[in-house]
Design a protein that fits this description.
homodimer; alpha+beta; two-stranded antiparallel sheet
Chain lengths: 89, 89
């Protein structure tokens, strides 16, 4: 998602604050993603009640980025495997 | 990464603030992830200079979560494809 002047504009509620997300994503996708971020922030808060919203958001970003990078590695391996299997046919 | 009492403990700098990340991840992996989050926050700031750190962090979390969910879908399709190709052999 981009945050520059693009087509769609969706307002979502994340951890008691409103955010306007601009981009080309479908509004339902934006709402789904926002609900996951909200959930993750509450999950981290539940075991770290001394953290403020900024800290929770940064840790949620770190968490999601970590999951993304790991999945990307797995994805690369899967793509290589598909390529190899196609060549073996 | 978890934020409860786990083995490793790494302090990173993200957007001019220090965060202590606890978990089972390798310290270098934590630092790499933190540098990506820092970069993404600065990237969003460069086109949205009116946003504060909390907003930048939440939008970065939304961005990373969106990338993660999309990749997860692609990953599921790739796994199905590998399974089908194995059955066809």
């Amino acid at each position: 998602m981009k945050y520059s002047n693009k087509r769609s504009r969706v307002t979502v509620d994340i951890y008691n604050h409103q955010y306007t997300i601009r981009g080309n994503e479908d509004a339902n996708q934006v709402r789904l993603v926002a609900s996951y971020v909200d959930r993750k922030m509450r999950e981290i808060y539940s075991t770290n009640e001394f953290l403020d919203t900024r800290e929770l958001a940064v840790l949620t970003a770190v968490n999601s980025m970590n999951d993304y990078l790991k999945l990307k590695e797995e994805n690369t391996l899967l793509k290589k495997r598909v390529k190899r299997m196609k060549e073996e046919k």
